[in-house]
Specification:
Helix content: 25-40%
CATH architecture of the largest domain: 3-Layer(aba) Sandwich
Shape: elongated
Number of strands: 15
Distance between the termini: 64 Å
Strand content: 25-35%
CATH superfamily of the largest domain: Response regulator
CATH topology of the largest domain: Rossmann fold
């Protein structure tokens, strides 16, 4: 695909609007000539837009609803240059660099975006890289590893929270509350979805609507009904353990 005599084009696929906007701004600063012709909030949208508009570059969030960035990249199969957008993960970064695949870490910094732009400008008139090997490595990691980061809303902003720092998760209306030592944020994942993705050796479900990080527990007391009550190290509230999960704390 030659872009020598025309404006290069790009698609951004990221389910968090604030991150999409931030990446678009960084790209505009680093590469004013690049036209972002479409934005998608899930993988299925990204595929449809890429096939319709045929952008030269696709910036794909690895973890998106409906279809992941890895699934989208696999389906594109060399139709355009791909840049993966990801939260920090040493394994993923090693796989990217080994395969000479471009990536942007979240949140996107001017320095990293400038580096990616420089690489893209050099290779844009060449065929897109073969992603087969790196996709296989990353898909194995994604399917086999527990959740490492949480993308959460905090008022009008969005933040990335390392799972290690989460004290507990609690269902709240249509959302799930993510609580760490600094405060609270909201995500759209259900408690069941989270429990399936978390490391079961470190996170226990203690109520239909609550998952707790074992490292966040200071002690476990008993209430007047002899039911376990969790006392946290870094927060004043107490977490009630329902009868269904009380057996988890019999030895405590």
């Amino acid at each position: 695909m030659s872009t020598r005599n025309r404006q290069p084009t790009a698609l951004i696929a990221e389910d968090e609007p604030l991150l999409r906007a931030q990446l678009r701004t960084r790209l505009n600063q680093a590469w004013p000539e690049l036209a972002v012709v479409a934005e998608a909030e899930n993988g299925e949208q990204a595929l449809a837009l890429q096939r319709e508009l045929e952008p030269d570059i696709a910036f794909l969030d690895i973890r998106m609803p409906v279809k992941s960035g890895l699934e989208v990249a696999d389906a594109l199969a060399g139709a355009c240059h791909v840049v993966f957008v990801t939260a920090y993960d040493e394994y993923a970064v090693a796989a990217f660099e080994q395969g000479a695949v471009d990536y942007v870490l979240k949140p996107p910094t001017p320095e990293r975006v400038a580096k990616v732009v420089s690489r893209l400008q050099q290779r844009l008139d060449r065929p897109p890289a073969d992603l087969a090997t790196v996709l296989a490595q990353l898909e194995a990691r994604e399917s086999g590893g527990p959740l490492q980061w949480i993308k959460a809303s905090l008022g009008a902003s969005m933040q990335l929270i390392p799972v290690d720092e989460v004290l507990y998760f609690q269902a709240e209306d249509k959302y799930t509350k993510v609580v760490n030592a600094e405060g609270e944020a909201l995500i759209r994942k259900t408690i069941k979805e989270l429990f399936d993705e978390l490391d079961g050796e470190r996170f226990w479900q203690v109520h239909r609507g609550t998952i707790v990080n074992l490292r966040a527990i200071a002690r476990v007391d008993r209430d007047y009904r002899d039911q376990p009550v969790i006392i946290l190290k870094a927060r004043p509230e107490k977490l009630v353990v329902s009868r269904t999960f009380a057996h988890l704390f019999k030895a405590m």
